[in-house]
């Protein structure tokens, strides 16, 4: 009998504690979620927020980049209740707008770090044109297997990025440049390393890239135009690259 009482009491305490947490979160306004999201990621903004902290939505969201704004469209989220027991609440997030679909899981720890997992982004590349010296078009796909960061400091990263059916505006017309991919990983000290390669393109690409907060991206590697590549593309590579051997050019950017 005593054993049964000792077993039931902790279960009852746990049940009432969870019920209390549920009661609070299911009634807490969704504005708290918007505030928490902005606190974790200072350049993320949610507006038109409604619902609750447990399950809510924002009519508009955006990420402020260095020289541009990346709109996310409508955002919805649902809290995973059991993650509260781990003191690292997680929400399943979905963002949609014409030409964009983002899904994934976001977890926030009590230490202030944010974790991403199973994140998938499909969108057109147009919004990033303000960040680039040339105008591009095409479709991009981002898959984040795992990531961890605190504010803007990258601590862990394992992601895949692809640029599909890409084109570059030459000033007079659009030049098709094919499809490319990149594997991104954390490189320590808040840096990101990447391996950039061709997927289906008139250029054979083997580039290593590194990102640092204070200077942005730096890329170095080799580029080889295939025989059928457009002459304009071949001439462009010859201008920006150093020929190491016939048809193979070393490119450093920027």
Q: Features of this protein?
A:
254 residues; alpha+beta; 56% strand
Would you give an account of this structure?
With 254 residues, this protein is an alpha+beta fold. It has a domain at 132-254. 18% of the residues lie in helices and 56% in strands. The chain has 3 helices and 15 strands. The protein has helices at 2-27, 31-40, 231-240; strands spanning 44-51, 55-64, 69-71, 74-80, 90-97, 100-108, 114-124, 136-150, 153-169, 174-188, 191-200, 203-212, 216-225, 242-245, 248-253. It has a 15-stranded antiparallel beta sheet that branches. Strand 5 and strand 6 (100-108) form a beta hairpin. The longest helix is centred in the N-terminal third of the chain and has 26 residues, at 2-27. The model has no long low-confidence stretch (mean pLDDT 86).
């Amino acid at each position: 009998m005593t054993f049964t009482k000792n077993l039931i009491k902790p279960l009852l305490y746990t049940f009432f504690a969870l019920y209390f947490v549920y009661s609070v979160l299911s009634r807490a306004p969704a504005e708290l979620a918007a505030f928490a999201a902005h606190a974790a990621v200072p350049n993320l903004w949610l507006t038109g927020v409604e619902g609750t902290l447990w399950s809510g939505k924002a009519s508009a969201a955006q990420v402020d980049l260095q020289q541009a704004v990346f709109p996310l469209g409508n955002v919805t989220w649902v809290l995973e209740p059991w993650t509260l027991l781990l003191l690292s609440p997680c929400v399943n997030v979905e963002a949609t707008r014409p030409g964009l679909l983002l899904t994934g899981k976001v977890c926030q720890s009590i230490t202030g770090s944010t974790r991403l997992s199973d994140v998938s982004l499909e969108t057109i590349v147009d919004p990033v044109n303000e960040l680039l010296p040339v105008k591009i078009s095409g479709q991009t796909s981002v898959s984040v297997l795992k990531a961890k960061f605190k504010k803007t400091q990258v601590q862990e990263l394992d992601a895949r990025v692809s640029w599909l059916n890409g084109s570059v505006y030459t000033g007079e017309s659009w030049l098709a440049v094919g499809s490319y991919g990149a594997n991104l990983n954390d490189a320590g000290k808040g840096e990101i390393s990447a391996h950039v390669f061709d997927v289906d393109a008139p250029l054979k690409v083997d580039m290593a890239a590194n990102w640092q907060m204070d200077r942005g991206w730096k890329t170095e590697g080799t580029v080889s135009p295939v025989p059928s590549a457009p002459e304009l593309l071949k001439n462009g590579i010859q201008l920006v690259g150093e020929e190491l051997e016939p048809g193979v050019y070393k490119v450093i950017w920027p």
